[in-house]
Amino acid sequence: MVETGGARAVARCDALGAAPYSELEQGLYRGYLTPAYHATVDLVGAWMVDAGMDVDLDAAANLHGRYEGEAAGAPALVIGSHLDSVRDGGCYDGPLGVMLGIECVAALNEQGRRLPFAIEVYGFGDEEGSRFPAAMLTSRAVAGTLDVDLGAIADAEGVSMEVALGSFKTDYDVVTAKTPTNTFSTRTYRAARRAPEDIVAYLEAHIEQGPALEAEGLALGTVTGIAAQLRYAATVRGMAGHAGTSSMPLRRDALAGAAEMVLAIEEIARADGSDLVATVGRLEAMPGAANVIPGEVRFTIDVRSGEAARRDRAAREILSRLEQIASKRGLVLDLARVHDLPASPCDPVLMDLLDAAMVEAGQPVRRLVSGAGHDAMVMASLCPTAMLFIRCKDGVSHNPAEHVEPADADAALRVMRGFIEKLGQKHLGDSFADRT
To answer: What is the Cα–Cα distance from 153 to 89, expressed in whole angstroms?
Structure first.
């Protein structure tokens, strides 16, 4: 039998790493609103019910569980992370934070305890943006910052997000007596929005996705903030032609131009000599035949820095350089900004609470910034936020080799429970109620 606590949270993440909770037979991919997401919502929802929560789906198809406080309808501490994954990803990026949130509630429920605030656990449906070309759609719906037309967003198969939402059905007979809304649309999607007065604070536990904690021999760290992000979709258009009959001087090769652009992006980021990073994570050449010069190439550009001004300055330089390359090669370049996420500092009072909980749990205090984006950066527009980083082996993430030790997850759970207890002290609860 699997022991309770952090070890059970890790085991549950492992269980979600294969079909039917993955779209791949070998490896993990769980896109938003796919059958694998359907199966995952059903199973994780059942675990929420077992922990003592009332469970439903919100209008954005987020999984949502609530454990009432001492008074019905009290504002809630939200504990959350995401259930979707990148293609060929790891088991813990996202789901571990959801599972640890469930464990926090299960411990309170087992003791028959209620707090001055409710606890809600969110399993956000889309953080990675691995199915649709925009990330954190579902937490943005909850925070009320969604500014995109769902009908204009489509996946690689051409299925619009609005159509995907409209066809998404979840049978909740197993996990709740409630009847969820099974038809979603652009109009209803924004009904997932929460009011600031209903939320005390937001806590997210997440694997570090980097090597700092492991290099220092530490299991946990308090996140001070999340780097600012810019993401673009680039399309380079040239002229397709026969690979054997088109002379080199006359070619307008979209792929060769895109290759020069990719190297320019890397060069600009390296030259900055700071925390600035720039990445081309996806590139597609068309028509994709071995004997045809590519006539069109699409790729993504991701630019991040802890300072928004530095990020923006680098982005301007990158876009200017790409235009120069396109002009020199006789190519047409189209650039569309996919999202602009500002730097998101965590709340100082909540960071202090996490630090104090770490000390009580026998963990050294370590603070660090997050270069990766998380739902916490979106939720910061709604309420005070805190993040707890958990060591992952070799700093590897977005990779099947992603690994978390159960002992580290147990340590994280102890800190999270200590944090909740400290937040539950009446004077701090009142303080945060005044701030929301």
So the answer is: 23
What are the sequence ranges of the domains in the chain?
A: 6-226+343-435, 228-341
Over its length of 436 residues, how does the chain's per-residue pLDDT go in tens digits? 345 699 999 999 999 999 999 999 899 999 999 999 999 999 999 999 999 999 998 989 999 999 999 999 999 999 999 999 999 999 999 999 999 999 999 999 999 999 999 999 999 999 999 899 888 999 999 999 988 778 788 998 999 888 888 788 655 443 333 434 444 455 577 789 999 999 999 999 999 999 999 999 999 999 999 888 899 999 999 999 999 999 999 999 999 999 999 999 999 999 998 889 999 999 999 999 999 999 999 999 999 988 889 999 999 999 999 999 999 999 999 999 988 888 889 999 999 999 999 999 999 999 998 988 899 999 999 999 999 999 999 999 999 999 999 999 999 999 999 999 999 985 454 555 455 4
How many whole angstroms from its chain centre is CA 155?
Answer: 18
The distance in angstroms from the start CA to the end CA of the chain is: 42
6-226+343-435 belongs to which CATH class? alpha beta
Nearest to 425 by CA among 74, 115, 200: 115
Cis peptide, bond prior to residue 133, ω within 30 of zero: no
Q: How far apart are CA 204 and CA 385, in angstroms?
A: 8
Q: What is the DSSP string of 372-422?
A: S--HHHHHTTTS-EEEEEE--GGG--SSTT----HHHHHHHHHHHHHHHHH
- Return d(Cα 326, Cα 332) in angstroms, integer: 6
* Candidate CATH numbers 2.60.270.50, 1.10.10.10, 3.40.1410.10, 3.30.70.360; the one for domain 228-341: 3.30.70.360
- At 435, list the tokens: 């701030």
Q: HEC profile for 45-78?
A: HHHHHHCCCEEEECCCCCEEEEECCCCCCCCEEE
d(CA 212, CA 237): 41
Q: Which residues contact 377 (CB under 8 A, 6 or more apart)?
A: 136, 226, 341, 342, 344, 385
- The pair phi, psi for residue 287, each rounded to 5°, is -85, -5
